[in-house]
Design brief:
alpha+beta, single chain, five-stranded mixed β-sheet, 6 helices, globular
């Protein structure tokens, strides 16, 4: 897989993983599903879901550190600012040979361009929040969020899932 291939797949994820409507109960279930999935895979994650600037779900699993929570905050800030996946932002920056700080002047203390945060997208409206995990390698963080969103929306992963082989 190449970064360009991953970027094309992420664009397709963002096109297809859109909700007709969202409420706090749905997002609580999404967070609980992410926590269950992470536990089944032996992952220790910080999980955060925000809607319209409000945190509606947060969990730091046993084994996750305060540093994971800070990474989640920084990745989420990137998604809330740019309305696209933090992994896509990072891959695009790598292709350009630039950092987010160089591109937009955003401080690294408050923004991160590593995989794990994905915009919550409403059909006909766009980004209204973010779902974020941190604690696994960035590609795995991203893939877990996409899998959980696809399950919730009953969208098959075939055609949108990133290959398990890390991008170069």
């Amino acid at each position: 897989m190449t970064m360009e291939t991953d970027l094309a797949l992420i664009a397709e994820q963002e096109r297809r993983l859109r909700f007709p409507a969202l409420d706090v109960e749905q997002l609580w279930q999404l967070g609980a599903d992410l926590r269950r999935m992470a536990g089944e895979r032996g992952l220790a994650l910080a999980i955060e879901i925000r809607l319209a600037g409000d945190t509606v779900f947060y969990s730091r699993m046993a084994g996750a550190s305060p540093n994971n929570a800070d990474w989640a905050r920084r990745k989420r800030n990137t998604v809330e600012m740019l309305h696209t996946s933090s992994y896509a932002v990072g891959l695009a920056a790598q292709l350009k040979g630039a950092s987010l700080e160089q591109e937009s002047g955003q401080p690294l203390r408050d923004y991160a361009i590593h995989g794990g945060s994905f915009p919550l997208l409403l059909q006909g409206l766009g980004a209204v929040g973010a779902v974020t995990v941190s604690g696994a390698p960035e590609r795995e963080d991203h893939a877990l969020v996409v899998e959980a969103l696809a399950r919730m929306l009953d969208i098959p992963l075939a055609g949108i899932a990133l290959d398990a082989v890390p991008a170069m």
